[in-house]
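User: Run a structure prediction on this.
Assistant: Running it now.
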Amino acid sequence: MDSRRYASLRYIFLIATFTGLGQVNWAKSLPVMQPEPSMHQCLRGSKNMLEAVSNTLQKASQKLELYSCSLEEIDHEDITGTNTVRDCIPPELIKNGSCLVSRKTLCVKNCCLKSIYEDLEIYKAEFNVIKETLAKDPTRQISLDQNMLAAIDEMMQALNFNSENVPLVSSPKEPDFYKTKVKLCILLHAFRIRAVTINRMMNYLTASS
């Protein structure tokens, strides 16, 4: 084999090698597609979550009856700041003429599920801080029910989204146990209302899927 032919074959081999490596790197750079959430798992998770927060709220209302923990006494607060209610409006309930009417059912589903996931991230972070604070309370009057936290995790796993911006909630350096217990009441009432909404939406999406 003469030197020119050898050089040509070597050049072709190098080009093929670099092309193959480029394709491998390109494939690695592609976003990993998340499997679509199972609506039956989401429905089961939402039912478990609603039951868990209802039980936790009932226990908290009994143990914290001196902390104005009833639905009529608390100041209602939405800590999420998300658009879950708007994102989860079924297309057929949107009036004609609205800029939202052109949304497809699939878009509504994906936006809704993602907003629900973001809500759960926020509540989970807040409840974990409360859990850590109450663990320092020398009176041990109340602790956060682990079953509710597990139910939130179960629901988040069923939704199967990746965390983009995990909310950071810092624990107070000097815990105020009275304020923490009042805040627990407020969050439990707010979270139960959100859990009812989530469960209703899961029923709708499961029936329409």
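Residues 4 and 164 are 55 Å apart (CA to CA).
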